């Protein structure tokens, strides 16, 4: 069975500081990994996915198969980054998403 | 088409009553998913459809829960004999096809259920 762990429920940083949201997973196959974000009073939306190797809003995430991690990073946090972030995993068949419990990021001025 | 829509957005019911939620996916999306999210947790998978076929059901989906997608477009999720533990946000998502698997699921705003 697949599992996603986000060890930090809350993370607070100051504007301009680097931020790293941790995500670890367990899955016996080759998963697809995603980061979803939910801003206040908005619906859940995709931030980025590992297969695209893209940078969205300054965020990047690298899949480390050896450490089974997919940490989300941004070198200089902005106040508008304050949101709930969920790491998610999907089997290669592209069926359901398995989510972590989420990390509430607060970027202070 | 402005995205996935769900109705109602909020529902308060008494224990033992039946409730039904509706989800309208993005029109060209043939896959439709239902998730449940309780306070402080990430969304948990309940079931999904490809067109009108229900392809997978989670063990979370007890006998009191039933989902349909009769014409491969909108879907309904019914909870019979609601219990207080059913109180949660029910999320719907849709996606186009299976391949490539990395295509994103687009989420609706959710239906918040409170069982008194």
Would you give an account of this structure?
The complex is a heterodimer of chains A (109) and B (116). With 109 residues, chain A is an all-beta fold. Helices cover 0% and strands 50% of the residues of chain A. Chain A contains no helices and 11 strands. In chain A, the strands form 3 sheets. In chain A, strands 2, 5, 6, 9, 10 and 11 form a 6-stranded mixed β-sheet that branches. Chain A has a 3-stranded antiparallel β-sheet with strand order 3-8-7, with no helix packed on it. In chain A, strands 1-4 form a two-stranded antiparallel sheet. By secondary structure, chain B is mainly beta. Chain B is built from no helices and 11 strands. In chain B, the strands form 2 sheets. In chain B, strands 2, 4, 5, 6, 9, 10 and 11 form a 7-stranded mixed β-sheet that branches. Chain B starts with a strand and ends with a strand. Chain A binds chain B through residues 4, 6, 9, 32, 34, 43-46, 49, 51-52, 86, 88, 90-102, and chain B through 3, 33, 35, 40-45, 48, 55-56, 58, 91, 93, 95, 98-110.
Helix fraction of chain A, binned, reads under 10%
**How would you characterize the largest beta sheet of chain B?**
7 strands, mixed
Distance between the termini of chain B: 35 Å
Largest interface: A-B, 27 and 29 residues
Most strands sheet of chain A: 6 strands, mixed
Spell the H/E element sequence of chain B: EEEEEEEEEEE
């Amino acid at each position: 069975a697949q599992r996603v762990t986000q060890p930090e429920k809350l993370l607070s940083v100051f504007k301009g500081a680097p931020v790293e949201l941790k995500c670890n997973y367990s899955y016996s196959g080759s998963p697809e990994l995603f980061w979803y974000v939910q801003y206040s009073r908005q619906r859940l939306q995709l931030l980025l996915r590992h297969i695209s190797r893209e940078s969205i809003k300054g965020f990047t995430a690298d899949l480390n198969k050896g450490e089974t991690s997919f940490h989300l990073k941004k070198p200089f946090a902005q106040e508008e980054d304050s949101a709930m972030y969920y790491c998610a995993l999907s089997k290669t068949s592209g069926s359901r998403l398995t989510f972590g419990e989420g990390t509430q990021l607060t970027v202070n001025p | 088409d402005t995205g996935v829509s769900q109705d109602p957005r909020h529902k308060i019911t008494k224990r033992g009553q039946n409730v039904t939620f509706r989800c309208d996916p993005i029109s060209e999306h043939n896959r439709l998913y239902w998730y449940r999210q309780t306070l402080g947790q990430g969304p948990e998978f309940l079931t999904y459809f490809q067109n009108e076929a229900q392809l997978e059901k989670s063990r979370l989906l007890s006998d009191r829960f039933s989902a349909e997608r009769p014409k491969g477009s909108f879907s309904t999720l019914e909870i019979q004999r609601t219990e207080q533990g059913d109180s949660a946000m029910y999320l719907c998502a849709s996606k186009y096809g299976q391949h490539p698997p990395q295509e994103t699921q687009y989420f609706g705003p959710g239906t918040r259920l409170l069982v008194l």
